[in-house]
Amino acid sequence: xxxxxxxxxxxxxxxxxxxxxxxxxxxxxxxxxNSTESVDYPLYANKVTKSLINKxxxxxxxxxxxxxxxxxxxxxxKGIRCAKIDNLEEAILAKEHNDANVLAFNVNKSLDFITESxxxxxxxxxxxxxxxxxxxxxxxxxx
Length: 143
Known about the structure:
Elements: E1 2-7, H1 12-22, E2 27-30, H2 41-53, E3 59-64, H3 68-75, E4 82-84, H4 88-96, E5 102-106, H5 111-123, H6 130-142
Parallel strand pairs: 1-2, 1-3, 3-5, 4-5
Helix pairs in contact: 2-3, 4-5
């Protein structure tokens, strides 16, 4: 799988750990930031989301202090469904119910939690239930 990943300055170290782990079985593209110097997170969320829209990657991963800022920034882009993941069930439901294509995490999550979340997300399938299709179509129309 081709994964794009970005972080703000608070997520820089965790991002690098995650890249090292994910590179074992995936192609990972690092969209920055490249240090712990303070940056504006929307710029980095935009790099990942634009790459996803352009089909250069198949999944986006965003990391910031709370995960909230990156989620908000990503979801401003038409065609993006970014889910902030706080527990393993949310990782599964983000795929099954919402057909998410970007996952966001706060920097207090462990590497083990994030990698397990990504694994569960990737193993899950979008549910074919009519209510989820309808809701996702509404998201596409509203955006």
